[in-house]
Every structure is written in structure tokens, then in C-alpha cells.
Design goal:
Layout: H1 3-10, E1 13-17, H2 21-25, H3 28-36, E2 38-42, H4 45-53, H5 59-67, H6 72-97, E3 104-108, H7 117-130, E4 135-140, H8 145-154, E5 159-164, H9 167-186, E6 195-200, H10 202-208, H11 220-237, H12 239-246, E7 253-257, H13 270-273, E8 281-284, H14 286-295, H15 309-318, H16 323-357
Helix pairs in contact: 4-16, 5-16, 7-8, 8-9, 9-11, 11-15
């Protein structure tokens, strides 16, 4: 049995953090679903920047769309929706079999809207209306994103909350999600609106690599992930959520993201083997998925109490790391990074559009 199948049988969903038209055209994604127990897919601006900017897979559609007058973001979203709707069709049998628990793909609103609540709500609704049923709309868990998440859930839009780095940021997201579900219950609407909350992990270890002793390297992201798992289990077990579950609500699942190992001296499956947990998701870059399928090990799942996570986080505090301040910094840096990727992607796509138009 492949390690990917073992992890799936344990109860964790394996998603891939990548999409290209080539993966779709050549049957690579379908093969991963069949061979590696893959049950979902995530995307972000950086992924689409690389996909659209390299090769000629998108040239024909760009030519067709630019002839209709589409440019900039409008052009991008048509390209992205074409890919993601195709991917969603591949995952549709899984989505149906699991009754909407799994089999999802994700499309992000423009990261340039991360500080604009109203614009985020409007774009999320527009993208949701143009996507197939098993497409999550990604909204950042920034201060301005939280009310947009609540409104989107209330409107029945399935949401993947992105750019979360800490337990506190996760809990704020869970609060926004539950408020949206509570409002649906009060309004007599179907309370089951699927959602995941994506916690970014490896960037923690990159940020402190030169600031902590050797014995603490590559351990912060895992400790944060395990502490968030404890918070997630607490939310699901709370009386507040149980009341909503009694009405037919389904919990927002915790998703471990940014799980590709950045340190070349560390295990390439570090964040997969250390974060096995039932009823959670781990979305991994393609090289990490292939590495885990080849030589990964499925260890014991995260204990209900998070194991040594609290003790480990205390060691980082003792080493001089201000975890709260670093979480805010990482979220801001993540937002800025996605902004740069977005602008670069739009720029390279426009250059390609002009080149295609010129023959």
C-alpha cells in the first residue's frame, strides 16, 4: 500500500497545491487521483503565474478571449475557471461519494482586494456563480477578509480561507464561519456550507531559521500546526458548534498548507509525516506529493492535546521569538507576496496576449 493511500485511510484528505493546463491535457491530474488517493486541489496567484507564463498551452484560448475584448483580470479569471472547472469535473465523483466533504478545487479572489471587504464579497459572489458546484472561493483571513467570509458563508458560498498563520487567526476565521452559519439558521436557510481554513506552516521555519538554536530548526511550523489542531477540535466540540451541527451544519475543516519543505537539509516529507490527523486536509506541492508517495512514512496521528506543541512553542518564546508579532508579519508578507505574483501574472499574461494578437 502506498503511503498516500495509508494516509487517506487514516482519515486525512490529500490535496495537491498545483494546477496547469498541461496536467489536465496529459492526464497527470487524473493519474494522481487514481494512484495517490488525491481528493482535492488548491491554487493561488503564484501557481497560475507559472502555469500561464510558461509554454503555449493557454495561447489559443487567450487569442479567442482577447478577440472578445477580455483583458487583465477578466481574461485571467476566464482562463483559471476553464482549468478549475475541468479539474472539478475530475473530482466530482469524489465530491458526490463523500456528500460534499471532499473532492474540491479552489480559486482565489484577487489578492489586491485583501483590504477591501465589499469588493471581496462582490468578487467572491461573481466567481462562485461562474464556477461548478465543487469549487471553493479562496478569501484571505485578514482583518478585512473576516467579514467577507461571514457574508460569503451566509450567502451559501463555499469558502477556503487562506493566509492563516496562527491559532488566533484560525479562531477568528472559525468565528466568522460560525456567525455566517448561525445567520443562515436564523433565516431558515440550509446550514450546511462547506468550508476549510488553510494554515500556512513552512514559512514559520523559514522566518526563524537564523534566529533559533539548531535543535529548534524546522520545528516551529509543526508546533503551530499541532496547536491549531487542538483549537480546531475544541471548536468542533464546543456547545456553540454542536447546536449548529444539530441544525444540520458541517464543521469547517482545518487544512495544512505551505507544506513543502524549504530547508534542503530537512526531510522532503517533514510536514506531511508530522501532521497526520483525522478529518483534516493537507494540500502539498507536486514534488512533495511525489516524494511522499515514493518514500513517505505515516506515523501516529496528532494527539487530541497536540502532543508537545505547547512545550515546543514555549521554547521558541524563550529563544526570543515573539510568536504573535511574527504571525502578523507573516500574514502581511504573504499578502504582499501574492500581490506581487498577481501583478506579475497579469503583466506576463498581457504580454502574451499582445504577442498572440500580433501572430
Amino acid at each position: 500500500m502506498k503511503p498516500t493511500e495509508e494516509l487517506h485511510k487514516l482519515g486525512q484528505s490529500l490535496w495537491i497545491d498545483n494546477i496547469t493546463r498541461k496536467m489536465l491535457d496529459e492526464g497527470v491530474l487524473e493519474r494522481y487521483i487514481n494512484e495517490f488517493s488525491l481528493t482535492g486541489l488548491t491554487s493561488n496567484p503564484t501557481i497560475f503565474e507559472k502555469a500561464i507564463g510558461s509554454g503555449d498551452a493557454y495561447d489559443e484560448q487567450i487569442d479567442e478571449l482577447q478577440a472578445k475584448g477580455l483583458t487583465g483580470e477578466d481574461l485571467f479569471f476566464e482562463l483559471a475557471l476553464t482549468d478549475l472547472n475541468r479539474a472539478a469535473a475530475l473530482f466530482q465523483p469524489i465530491n458526490e461519494r463523500t456528500d460534499d466533504v471532499d473532492g474540491w478545487v479552489s480559486l482565489e479572489v484577487s489578492p489586491l482586494l485583501a483590504d477591501d471587504t465589499d469588493a471581496t464579497i462582490k468578487q467572491a459572489a461573481d466567481l462562485h456563480s461562474r464556477a461548478t458546484g465543487n469549487v471553493y472561493i479562496k478569501i484571505p483571513g485578514t482583518p478585512a477578509g473576516l467579514p467577507a467570509i461571514e457574508e460569503a458563508i451566509f450567502a451559501g458560498i463555499s469558502v477556503n480561507v487562506t493566509l492563516l498563520f496562527s491559532v488566533e487567526q484560525y479562531l477568528a476565521t472559525a468565528e466568522a464561519f460560525m456567525r455566517g452559519v448561525e445567520r443562515r439558521v436564523d433565516a431558515g436557510l440550509e446550514p450546511m456550507v462547506p468550508s476549510v481554513a488553510s494554515l500556512f506552516l513552512s514559512r514559520w521555519d523559514v522566518a526563524v531559521a537564523d534566529e533559533v538554536p539548531e535543535e529548534l530548526k524546522n520545528k516551529l511550523g509543526i508546533a503551530i500546526g499541532r496547536a491549531a489542531y487542538v483549537a480546531y477540535r475544541d471548536v468542533v466540540a464546543s456547545e456553540r458548534w454542536q447546536r449548529l451541527a444539530n441544525e444540520g451544519g458541517r464543521p469547517q475543516r482545518l487544512l495544512f498548507a505551505s507544506t513543502g519543505t524549504k530547508d534542503p537539509e530537512a526531510s522532503d516529507t517533514l510536514y506531511i509525516e508530522s501532521l497526520a490527523a483525522v478529518r483534516t486536509v493537507n494540500t502539498m506541492p507536486e514534488p512533495t506529493l511525489l516524494a511522499f508517495a515514493d518514500h513517505g512514512k505515516v506515523g501516529e496521528p496528532i494527539p487530541r492535546d497536540g502532543g508537545d506543541s505547547a512545550e515546543m512553542l514555549a521554547k521558541f518564546t524563550e529563544a526570543g521569538i515573539d510568536l504573535d508579532a511574527l504571525a502578523e508579519r507573516l500574514q502581511q508578507e504573504g499578502k504582499e507576496s501574492f500581490n506581487k505574483s498577481w501583478e506579475s501574472m497579469i503583466g506576463s499574461m498581457e504580454s502574451k496576449r499582445e504577442a498572440v494578437a500580433a501572430g
